[in-house]
Amino acid sequence: MEAAGTERRTTESPLAPTGGSAAARVYSHVKERLLDGTFPGGSLLSENELSQRLGLSRTPVRQAFVQLEAEGLLELYPKRGALVVPVAASEIEDVFEARLLVEEHCARRAAAAGPALAAELRDAIAEQERAIAADAGFADADRRFHRAIVAAAGNAILTRLYDALRDRQRRIAAVAVARGGAAALERFVAEHREIAAAIERRDADEACRLVAAHLRSARDAARGARGGAA
């Protein structure tokens, strides 16, 4: 599963404020916290509070909020602030359906990739274990694991499609992991070990089965977390 954690390389919209402008800095700051769950769905963000916290005027904060509204992450209310749009049930279903189609197919092809992929997956799992112990950085290691399998399939279009889902994956995972905590992360790592072992054995059928089961389990966790938070 793409899980929540401290991942600071936020993917920006092509329409986002660019360069080193104040609006760009606010955009990156707020979007990162929307994606990692620091600003949870249903919470209200204040232009004035953020501008004071960041030491900026309200204008760049307002500009960033407008762009984040265009991306569907915020809903603006004049004179009140910006509501963080909760993750919708339909988004959970759509994202996991897309991931299942991509990752199950790629796991079958990746099973023939050989020892280089197996070594990369072992390294990613070790990195995940260190991140759990440090309580930081799990998202990077988790993403490295899943993306390695997708990239090993050798289809550049599928890899770009997977990359395009990153922001949505992170938001959904943040909801699920906030509820499941460290136990959820440890379960994800255990499932990753099983997937990696099947790929190392070049057992394509088992790798596909395990990837599908892992993603369905992650989807169910996200469904449950959303329901429990409602």
Describe the secondary structure blueprint for this structure:
Layout: H1 22-35, E1 44-45, H2 47-54, H3 58-70, E2 74-77, E3 81-84, H4 89-110, H5 115-134, H6 138-152, H7 156-164, H8 166-200, H9 204-229
Helix pairs in contact: 1-3, 2-3, 4-6, 4-8, 4-9, 5-6, 5-8, 8-9
Short description:
With 230 residues, the protein is mainly α. It is built from nine helices and three strands. The longest helix is centred in the last third of the chain and has 35 residues.
Can you walk me through this structure?
This protein has 230 residues and is mainly α. It folds into 2 domains: 22-84, Arc Repressor Mutant, subunit A; 89-229, GntR ligand-binding domain-like (Four Helix Bundle (Hemerythrin (Met), subunit A), Up-down Bundle). The chain is built from 9 helices and 3 strands; from the N terminus they run αβααββαααααα. It has a 3-stranded antiparallel β-sheet. A hairpin with a 3-residue loop joins β2 (74-77) and β3. α4 (89-110) runs antiparallel to α9 (204-229).
